[in-house]
User: What shape does this take?
Amino acid sequence: MRVIILADFAEPSGGAQSVALDSALALAARGAEVVYVQGVAGPVDPQLAQVGVTCRSLGLSDIWARAPIEAAVTGIWDVQAARRLRATLADLVTPGTVLHLHQWTRAMSPSVLRVLLRAGAPLAITLHDYFAACPNGLYYRFDRHEPCTLTPLSAGCVAAACDPRSRAHKAIRVLRSLATRATLAQARCEVIHVSDRGREVIGRFLPPGLRQHRIDNPVEVERRPPAEIPDGATAYAYVGRLTREKGADLVAEAAALAGVPVLFIGEGPAEADIRHLNPGADVLGWRPRGEVADLLRTRARALVAPSRWYETGPLTVYEALAAGLPVVASSRSGAAEKVVHGETGLVVEPEAGALADAFRQLSDVAEARRMGRAAHDRYWAAPLDGAAHATRLVELYREMLARA
Assistant: This one.
């Protein structure tokens, strides 16, 4: 079996990219022949070559780093991306080949969907976000700081000032979504949701010809004893991009209300708000993946994932549970389905008051340790590792090839 994985980048620059790379590594370890096609010309994770994954690049630039007019046109339909992908696939697609698309919004545009659907091999698309239906990709009202309730591409949706940049940017994204919908409406392919929440939010807006599946993301963490959670002033930790839709400001405000230390690992536009709401917050910026794991084990009382948007499945939640840390998760997040309220963490509304109450409850170190140990035991009883992920994918690929 040959699996061709496609994504904008070939380095772990975000959640979707990390999943694409970990998926490629896991499939190669399982014996599949894996080819990784990246849209943007740039660095390649050295682990791919180490396990025999072949890499190809379309040699494109990030759409949103281009001149405004070019970015608008290619963001809607990039003819060059389609042409280069068609040429790249010409000698790769043979009998027994499966195509798997992870991300196409930063380099390739909806034009590549048509190429993939006509490539002569079955196609699967993992939905790490909601761009398959929603113009801004998050099904979230940035103008109101709340989840959206509109039908994507309805008159109300088109008129809404929900884009985080501008109405002009929203217009471009609407046109791109129309192109995506028109292409997928003619498709017979598989889409993969990474959480039940993701499927619940966007599945009803997808064309009826798409077969929908639910497969967990792979979580690559070393099995170690559960974090000890020392008696000292350990912090409530937030890991990720510092934005309002992810609730970073809520963590700062809640920690100030509860009078507890707070630690931020990441960067983003909400950093100024965080420092204003909580001058004592420790904001470290981005750190390498291994260093993040060590910081959580030595400095964290719990991980906090307070998303205001219907986040599909942040990997940091699974990694914290695997490490033996309790998690305070937003009830809107897909990852909350892995948190057993009161046993392995707390599931609360994404509001400062509710988060502060959760922080106060976990200020009892014995309670935090109890939940942390339960989280560790529960995670490792059925780990979401690469092997389990690859097994489920191969099962799906075989079904796809049988139908084809």
Summary: The chain is about 40% helix and 15% strand.
